[in-house]
Amino acid sequence: MPSTPPFIRLLPGLLAATALLAMQPLRAVSDPGFKVETLADGVYAAIRTDPPGLMVDANSLFIVNEADVVVVDAPEASAEMIAALRKITPKPVTYLINTHWHDDHVIGNAVWRKAYPGIHFIAHASLRDYLPGTGTKNREGMIKGAPEFAGQMQAQMDQGRNLQDQPISDEERISYSSDIRLVKHYMEVVPGTPNVLPDIAVDEGLTLIRGTRRIEIRHLGNGHTKADLVVWLPAERIAATGDLVVWPVPLVGNDQSHVRDWPATLDALLKLEPAVFVPGHGPVLRNADYPRQMRDLFASINDQVAASVAKGASLEDTRKAVDLAAFRDKFAGDSKVRRFAFGMYVTGPAVESAYRDAKATP
Fold first, then answer.
1. How far, in Å, CA of 347 to CA of 103, rounded?
2. d(CA 50, CA 57)
3. 93: which of 69, 98, 232, 359 fits an S-S bond (Cβ 3.0–4.6 Å)?
4. Once rounded to an integer, what is the mean pLDDT over residues 172-185?
């Protein structure tokens, strides 16, 4: 069993009856699972309100210009986000930027195209190759495994136990219930939805001038994937980071992330001196403390892994040698949910990613 799922969504390999998933109610229609925050004149963030857990959907950004709208990311909840945008403005959406290739940032492209037929999609050039190949395989695995995992969560809750078969806490119960709702929504939205590939590809950067607004789309380096883009509004000092920045625990995939490059990419982001960060997941961040904390975590992992590799250690021995306890306490505190997520999405995959890169590039 791999240490993390290929697209950082949930713990695989736990089987249960899928009928339990169907029993889990969705949110009320009046609660779309996100809130819209005004960040600057014409700039709005659609921020998920789910509690921390193993299943996620993405934030989005609406940039309302003089004659049109530019949107950042197309989550599974894109239909609900379109409804929210139309309450803000009747202007057409002319561009949608996918910050990277994972489903919770691209699957809504088809919905946005239906709502705004003249729209253009912008993404890193590698996304055109990833989505029809590896992306499709990963999606098939998610469609097969997610309901089984959600059923296991429900079964454990019914027995008063968590995924580690210990007594479940109130925090874990809330988190599991949210995960189950998100899986149900995923299964309603994703199967059968076609890929919509970008018609404008970015390698290093691209600038959109929309009336008086300047929108810079930058590839600052590898991190969460090699396709990560940052959308930078220099006048407003707002950065939409995609999953280069994720709160409360970074999302790392041993087969797709690049931990060795991630600190330098975050340094490039920090050099822009944003006043506001809109992360791929988590609340709006109004200072650089958390991105710096992520940078320091990955730098420490790289240093520890490099020292282990220099001694000729195996991956298994390197895992034992790397000590992330202090960082786990800083990111997760006493939260059972966040500590489990840190182990799932950082301790295992980040060390493996750094080890792979260190071996490939001494």
1. 24
2. 9
3. 69
4. 97
pLDDT of residue 55: 94
Which single residue is written with the structure tokens 């239906």?
A: 114
Helix (H), strand (E), coil (C) string for the chain:
CCCCCCCCCCCCCCCCCCHHHHCCCCCCCCCCCEEEEEEECCEEEEEECCCCCCCCCCCEEEEECCCCEEEECCCCCHHHHHHHHHHHCCCCEEEEECCCCCHHHHCCHHHHHHHCCCCEEEEECCHHHHHHHHHHHHHHHHHHHHHHHHHHHHHHHHCCECCCCCECCHHHHHHHHHHHHHHHHHHHHCCCCCCCCCCEEECCEEEEEECCEEEEEECCCCCCCCCCCEEEECCCCEEEEEEEEECCCCCCCCCCCCCCCHHHHHHHHHHCCCCEEEEEECCCECCCHHHHHHHHHHHHHHHHHHHHHHCCCCHHHHHHHCCCHHHHHHHHCCCHHHHHHHHHHHHHHHHHHHHHHHHHCC
Would you place residue 32 in the very low, low, confident or very high pLDDT band (cuts 50, 70, 90)?
Answer: confident
Give pLDDT, residue 114: 98
The answer to whether residue 19 scores a pLDDT higher than 50 is no
34-127+195-360: CATH topology: Metallo-beta-lactamase; Chain A (3.60.15)
